[in-house]
Amino acid sequence: MKRILWVALLSVLWSAGLWSQASPAQCTSDSVVCAYLYQYSGSSLTAVCSAPVGQTPATWSVAASTLTSVAVAANVGTATFASAPGLWQGAQLTLTGGPTGLAASYAITGVSGTTVTIATSGVSNGTYTTGIAASSTSPLTGAAQWNIQLYAYNGSGQVVASHWAGGNRNFTSVCANWASY
Question: Order of strands across the sheet with 104-112?
């Protein structure tokens, strides 16, 4: 049902000229995969951030003091970073090092401050701090590599305006700052 509502909403926005895709050269090409993050105020869609996936990887490691640990309990891994990593639910995180089975790529299932959670399988319970490193080619929410489309509503809850953050569709906006545009 939610998927049908999304398709209907996007169709209405498209036909009203209030929705347009990100840069055709980057996010509508068959060879480019893009991440789309949807921002809400209550139940109203207020912004859509989009950015190409697969850019230069961001890296963190225990050795560099940017990754603190990876703890595993009951098939749930929690990676703790020295500061908020800018990752988001659904982003890919690749771990290297650690015990058997931990070195793999994971879809992030949750984010809270400086931690991200992943679903692990076949990894022994424990907290791992030696030789662990992480990387991601997913766009980071704090990096200036997004374009952001913002929406305004009237008192009846109808979309009445749309504009691009920074006045353009360039991939130079910071998704984490969407509310300030």
Answer: 58-61, 133-136, 92-96, 104-112, 115-119, 76-81, 67-73, 126-128
